[in-house]
Amino acid sequence: MSKVLMKGNEAIGEAAIRAGSLNYFAYPITPQSEVAEYLSRRMPEVGGVFLQGESEVAVSYMIFGAAACGERVFTTSSSPGISLMSEGISYITAAECPAVFVNIMRGGPGLGGILPSQADYFQATKGGGHGDYRLLVMAPASVQEAVEMVMQAFVLAEKYLNPVMILGDGLIGQMMEPVEFPEHLKVEPSNKDGWATSGMDTRKSSHRNLVKTLYLDPGELNAHNLKLKAKYERMQREEIRYETYNLNGDYEILIVSYGTMSRVCRTAIDNLKESGLEVGMIRPQHLFPFPGQAINDAAAKKGCRAVLSVEMSMGQMVEDVERSVIGKCPVHWYGKCGGEVPTPEEVMGEIRKIIE
Amino acid sequence: MGKIFQKPEALSDTITHYCPGCTHGVAHRLIAEVIDELGIHGRTVGIAPVGCAVLMYNYFTCDFQEAAHGRAPAMATGIKRVRPDLMVFTYQGDGDLASIGLSEIVHAANRGEKFTTIFINNAVYGMTGGQMAPTTMPDQRTTTSPFGRKPSEVGMPIRMAELLASLETPGYIVRQTLVKPKYVTRAKKAIKKAFMYQMENRCFSMVELLSTCPTNWGMTPVAATKWVEEKMMPYYRLGEFKTPEDD
What we know:
The structure holds two protein chains of two kinds.
Chain A: E1 4-7, H1 8-18, E2 23-26, H2 33-46, E3 49-52, H3 56-68, E4 74-77, H4 79-95, E5 100-105, H5 121-126, E6 136-138, H6 143-160, E7 164-169, H7 170-174, E8 176-179, E9 210-211, H8 218-238, E10 242-245, E11 253-256, H9 259-274, E12 279-284, E13 286-288, H10 292-299, E14 306-310, H11 317-325, E15 331-334, H12 344-355
Parallel strand pairs in A: 2-3, 4-5, 5-7, 6-7, 11-12, 11-14, 14-15
Antiparallel strand pairs in A: 1-8, 6-13, 10-12
Chain B: H1 24-38, E1 44-48, E2 63-66, H2 72-82, E3 87-93, H3 94-100, H4 102-111, E4 116-121, H5 151-154, H6 160-165, E5 171-177, H7 181-199, E6 204-210, H8 214-217, H9 221-235, E7 239-242
Helix pairs in contact in B: 1-7, 3-4
């Protein structure tokens, strides 16, 4: 299939359709409203469902209701909207239903701004809503990768019966890039007869299904949480994804960076190489589970003097980097969070400061 | 001789956890009878609320989802949009529907979502221990209005049926009560009609049921029944407020 030039937000919408998710509920918010605009035209063409909800709170429960019926469903939003959806996300996770949430991050806290940001790292990887739960969090660095991750997200959500979040900064949604769509996803949602409230007539067994999150008995609730924990531990064994850059030879500094920020870091690494300074990079593609062991190994390599977490936040991922490096070498943070993406020169300047 | 009275198939054998004199059990039975009579048991999904009825799925034998407080209409919307062939009902109390979930119920009704809401109005938050609700009557004492509800401070009780009936979108909006056999018969008719409108894919439907809460009202079941008739019914008028035939 040939490449098409597409805006990230529209490509994300199209990717979900090609993954067989013909059910979309959303509430407009900058900088991702183009997804809803695109799908309001596109869903009727493919016989899908498009509904603009009255709030992000309501949308998260429309997702819950539909997901609990065993239907492939997703929504897109941006930071303040994800805060409102976090209640629903906690319930969906507790109820063990598959669904995909896309967060095209803008600056915060509060209304913050509408420009790109990565300040929802904590919210996405550490909770956001209440209770002990995790999302599988995927962080694309290009429109092409966003398309591939959105399609894969449905497979993973159904594998784990857990919501998956695509965490993209505003640039991923707003920029246009050539993109090649993979083949339509052939995998059908499976094994839903045992849990989905799809109506008893649709199933062979006479067992009724109940989707709930209340466990009044302390032993039962603890057992439920242990079951969820085991699922997150399985993700840590099976779903760690990262990419390395300039990591094969010797390097003095190790960068950890994700999303659009990692592309700026690549340029900085290339420029520094010309001046004789070697810098390696690990780019987590999944933020949960986090590639802690890979970062630890890379930081322990002979000649590596420091690790630098570069992120468009005031220092969030750096906490995971620190607990991965476990003192093997000093860990630094560099970033901006007002909507401006740090330039290669600024990253290079930060690296030179560390070297000195 | 055949049986002339039996438990509906849509109800299970679970022993009730509701207080003596509470009308939840009557409402449950009426819904179950309607499910049986319409032959829709295998394609019905109920949505349980947060409140005393959170465990209502223990009494029913069909598929069920359990909502967060106030969000049942959004969940029902999600189900009906992706599976219009399913019969979906929400069951909500007054704190759930008229307070925290006001936005969800108004917008679902205004979009004309094809599901049925059973709204239990007993003028109080039940499960949390009898706090003031948006439907609490003027001067009614609750644990958070110990001197009686003061309309000058917190406004008058919200009449949900009238509020939803004011929407231009066609719908079936009715209020009944469960405190005497003659009312129960009317309530059953209203519930059946609401489900039938849904079955015909006609409109959103809500049946508000004036109900008792002897425990939190601090009354005997008999006194609670009387209180509904004397205090609630003059303010919350019974009857059909809107039918799709109106338009």
